[in-house]
């Protein structure tokens, strides 16, 4: 058995029941075969892959809090500190009832390669809880965040581990978490990113993941003789990433016709009116179906099915494994020629293979959604300097980083004889920097 296959078998055996983690590891290892086979003896002796797939540390803890009825609730809290070879652990916190250790390990593993691709000095981590913020009052969310941070504060720091937002964690939650960190430690430091602009946040961080996604999409299209202007786009989700991907796609001349949430999707043939979506989602914390109350010419459909809408470009921006083989085939049959992943691992492995084999342009999440964490790293730089850059300064840097990520994925794919396969390219390019740092730092 090759070294790569041996390691995958071990991961499955030693991490039972963690399907998403197995899936993420398999995709990366399959891409790395080309690189590892050429250096097998050296990497095997150093147990490089064994170390790469094992988190440096996982912290798991109890999160007790009191709800509005005076009832004590208990959630599970986690932080997966996956790899610190190239910088302090960096990655979001997810609050969603589906969160478990396996999902956070998959997200932390992806983050290691994504963060490497940004070219900035950040290692990989992820955390969160099975707490469900939906339907909770602000006071309940604050009580949860304070309890969560009381424990987490022992393990993080501006030069140690810097969490941020992810599903269910936005400006409100980061504010409560930051306040409690400061209270627990007495430190006013850049320990979290995605902070409010009045207490150390960076301009563009709110928009960064969605904007970055469209910047790299644009770069991929232009490098393949196509353009975004005039194209019809379907975006899934209606959270932070989906909203700002829609905004930038519209600014660059595309027509976005659909958005979704976990209940269903809207279709607006005239193009989504984003100010209405922002009001529903960012102000009222409502459901996407409320869009048709404001725009009666649009349609709402309950359930899945967003990928059956005809489009040129699909941007999955909701959650993992939201787009399966059947969805991929429907997209292709309806004329879709490009897919870029705003979410982490939204396409199943079968869907990803179909995109690549059928000649569609496909940019995987760890490259395509790296603009969020890259701008987080820019927030860390500004915090260290005790300065705040202008919107344009940060936006220009973000665009430059996304163009560079495209170039790295494109170049690595070409170097290993799989030109146009940006999955392999991103995995290899992300791996090269991390492995170099790990080898240099000895057996740790
Ligand atoms: P938000 O919480 O702002 O929005 C999440 C959106 O996805 C909502 O519309 C939500 O619908 C939908 N969604 C979440 N879980 C499910 C599910 N199980 N089934 C169907 N729909 C679901 O999160 P973000 O926009 O920040 O994150 C979206 C994706 O982007 C995630 O995969 C995240 O890991 C990734 N990402 C985020 C970054 C960031 O900076 N925020 C950076 C890089 C990647 P509902 O309201 O019904 O739950
Ligand atoms: O998946 C991700 O890259 C994020 N949720 C953003 C992480 C960050 O540290 O900004």
Helices and strands, in order, run as HHHHEEEHEHEHHEHEEHHEEHEHEHHHH
Provide the β-strand percentage band: 15-25%
Number of helices in the DSSP assignment: 17
Intertermini distance: 26 Å
Helical content band? 40-55%
Flag low-confidence runs.
none
Secondary structure tally: strands = 12
Q: What is the fold-level CATH name, i.e. the topology of the largest domain?
A: Rossmann fold
**Mean pLDDT rating:** 98
Question: How much is the radius of gyration in Å?
Answer: 21 Å
Instruction: Quickly give the structural class.
Output: alpha/beta
CATH class division of the largest domain: Alpha Beta
Main β sheet profile: 7 strands, mixed
CATH homologous superfamily classification of the largest domain: NAD(P)-binding Rossmann-like Domain
As laid out across the biggest beta sheet, the strand order is: 9-8-7-6-10-11-12
Q: What are the bound molecules?
A: NADPH dihydro-nicotinamide-adenine-dinucleotide phosphate, (2Z)-2-iminopentanedioic acid
Query: Could you say how many structural domains there are in total?
Result: 3
CATH architecture of the largest domain: 3-Layer(aba) Sandwich
Q: Can you tell me the overall shape?
A: globular
């Amino acid at each position: 058995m090759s070294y790569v296959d041996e390691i995958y078998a071990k991961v499955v055996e030693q991490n039972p029941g963690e399907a998403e983690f197995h899936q993420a590891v398999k995709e990366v290892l399959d891409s790395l075969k080309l690189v590892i086979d050429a250096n097998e003896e050296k990497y095997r002796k150093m147990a490089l892959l064994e170390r790469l797939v094992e988190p440096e540390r996982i912290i798991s803890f109890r999160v007790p809090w009191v709800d509005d009825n005076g009832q004590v609730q208990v959630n599970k809290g986690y932080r997966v500190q996956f790899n610190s070879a190239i910088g302090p652990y960096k990655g979001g916190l997810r609050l969603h009832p589906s969160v478990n250790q396996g999902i956070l390990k998959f997200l932390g593993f992806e983050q290691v390669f994504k963060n490497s691709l940004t070219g900035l000095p950040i290692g990989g981590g992820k955390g969160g809880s099975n707490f469900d913020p939906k339907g909770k009052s602000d006071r309940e969310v604050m009580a949860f965040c304070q309890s969560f941070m009381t424990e987490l504060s022992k393990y993080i720091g501006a030069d140690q581990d810097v969490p941020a937002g992810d599903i269910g964690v936005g400006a409100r939650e980061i504010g409560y978490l930051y306040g409690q960190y400061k209270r627990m430690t007495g430190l006013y430091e850049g320990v979290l990113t995605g902070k409010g602009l009045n207490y150390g946040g960076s301009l563009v961080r709110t928009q960064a993941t969605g904007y970055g996604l469209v910047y790299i999409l644009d770069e991929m299209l232009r490098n393949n003789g196509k353009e975004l202007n005039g194209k019809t786009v379907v975006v899934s989700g209606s959270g932070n990433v989906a909203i700002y991907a829609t905004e930038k796609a519209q600014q660059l001349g595309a027509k976005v016709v659909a958005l979704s949430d976990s209940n269903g999707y809207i279709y607006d043939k005239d193009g989504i009116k984003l100010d209405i979506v922002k009001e529903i989602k960012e102000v009222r914390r409502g459901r996407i179906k409320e869009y048709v109350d404001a725009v009666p010419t649009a349609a709402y459909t309950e359930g899945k099915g967003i990928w059956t809408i005809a489009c040129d470009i699909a941007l999955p921006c909701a959650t993992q494994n939201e787009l399966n083989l059947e969805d991929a085939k429907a997209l292709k049959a309806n004329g879709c020629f490009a897919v870029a992943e705003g979410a982490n691992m939204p396409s199943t492995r079968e869907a990803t293979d179909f995109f690549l084999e059928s000649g569609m342009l496909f940019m995987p999440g760890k490259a395509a959604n790296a603009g969020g964490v890259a701008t987080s790293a820019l927030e860390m730089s500004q915090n260290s300097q005790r300065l705040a850059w202008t919107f344009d300064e940060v936006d220009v840097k973000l665009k430059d980083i996304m163009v560079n990520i495209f170039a790295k994925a494109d170049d690595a794919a070409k170097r290993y004889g799989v030109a146009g396969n940006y999955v392999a390219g991103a995995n290899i390019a992300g791996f090269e920097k991390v492995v170099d740092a790990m080898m240099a730092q000895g057996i740790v």
